[in-house]
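QA checklist item 7 of 12: single-chain prediction sanity check.
[x] sequence parsed
[x] length recorded as 357
[x] structure emitted
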Amino acid sequence: MAGSRRTSVALSMFGRERKAIQIRVFGKTDAGRTRDHNEDRFLVADLTRREASLLPQVREHGVGERGSLLVVADGMGGAAAGELASEMATDTIYAQMVKMWGSEPEASAQRFAYRLKEAVEVANSHIHSYAKAHPEVRGMGTTMTAAGVLGDHAYLTQVGDSRAYLIRRGTAYQLTKDQSLMQRLVEAGELTEEQAARSDRKNIILQALGPDPKVKVDLTHQELQRGDILVLCSDGLSGLVTKEEIAETVSDATDIPAACDRLIALANERGGPDNITVIVASFEGEGLRTPKATDGQDIGHHVYPLVDTEASTGEMPVYHGSVAPQPAPRTRWRAMALLLAVAALIGLCLYFLVQHP
């Protein structure tokens, strides 16, 4: 009886009977044109079958009761350290999801989102503990963007500045928010997005997996519809290829591996100064709604409200070692004008004292 009840919950957890959802996915990573090593890492997994690979049965599979998992990580801290951090992140997140989510008695969206966030936190703890015990890699870290797909929703966890985009009807929408200095300045109105993209400080991030014992994971969600394409990438791609170019490349491609190749080639054609990693996943099936012309209004950064004790997201802590934000030019000019006015007032007072002893 209990088993039947759990099956009923799983089938109706999104408000309707589960129907077929098919995912076609591929991922690729490249060292780029400048670096002689690759600190990026990615993972594609069918969590129902407990298989992480790019074998044919994973590259095209039905989204099962336990869902699917996509992860991109961009390591930092030097060749060996960065590669190790990104590898530990992807492997730990997958292992945790298989172990903890795979043994959940209730296959609900709430528990899935909670376990995904928990897996990222465990990965952070493992990387931090390892670096603490091994001085040769102390300070290593990695960004991380993970998308867990369950039913007709994607649940995203974000730490750092790798990104997730959703392409619907040929238009790209950014689902994640960079945890970076430039993003903060854009949100504060100090810089435009165009100015931030050109800044020589655009690579300063506010947190990463590993450097600190605890990390604040940004957990969001997005409904998927028929024909949607999900793109996860490191900043080696997003820093050189616009979201409009990403949308055009993946929307016109019937061959997903070829689309990954083309995106990486675009970044390399523009210098390829960093490692480049991308995952492209397309979704079809009767379990997804058919998009309407107005559906783009509901795509974006939507915080997922966990009911568990710990908040799902919040103010991001400053990543140690980051350069403090500089005041905007207009703020500096106001301060300078105030100082000049005070100096002029003091000079005037001194003049009157000298003239009228």
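[x] summary fact logged: The chain has ten helices and twelve strands.
[ ] second reviewer sign-off
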